[in-house]
Amino acid sequence: MKVAVLTVKHVLEINKTTNGRSILSGFDGRFLQLVLNALNVDYEIVIPADGEWGLKKPDGNWTGLIGIMARREADMTHGSVVITKQRTEVVDFSRPCTVYGETFVIENPGIMISNYAYLYPFDFTTWICSFCVFIIMSVLIFIIANQKVSLHQIFFEMYGNIMKQPLIIYKEFLHWNLLVCLWFGFVFVMTLGYSACLSAFLTVPYQKRYCENISSAFHCDSERDSSCFFVTRGNFIADYLAASEEPYLRIIGDKIISNDWFFDILDSGSGKIRQL
Description:
ligand-gated monoatomic ion channel activity; 3-stranded parallel β-sheet; mainly alpha; ligand-gated ion channel; 7 strands; receptor
């Protein structure tokens, strides 16, 4: 029996014994080895020269594993061969034994270094609300003090209180205990929250924005002309994306195909992919 496979490091590897017999390793290889042992047949491993899973060419022929099966150069194949409508027209699939998910892997964006990092503990809305409270309270105190103290002096004193400096209590404030307590409560919560958040930001550096899904990956790519999407050669993903109903997926698929953003599955684990 001839068995067509693609070798991928740690997934499906072929080891030769002293008598020349092929022993399969890796999590896919061990599964296939169990199947072959259960069938109790002599087998020969066939590897496609193009190193592809299988795509339909414009002339109607197939590449990779599917091509070997379509030309009857092998009796069976095993591995991460995804079932698609086109492939079922030329080969018969068994019941799926494994379900795989496709994931976009991106470079770690790294740590964000900014001169405005001291503003990160609070969001924009919190800063605006805090500033409004500061202005309103300063004006109210100016009115309560019967304008005996200049407004800019009150601003400085209120700001100093936020910076944990003592606040001068004028005798006119004695009848406004609730207002003073509210101000002290606001200062306490704001300063404590800011100190805690700032300590957290200093302990764990702020990470740059990263792409959380395919849609955000597309927008990240649009912002950076040097970005690209690499997929394995002979994989169905590029054609699937190019035929998608989602506009951004079609753009990604078309860019992969037009720019030839493919890598050979045989190069997995060799270090060549990092050089792309």
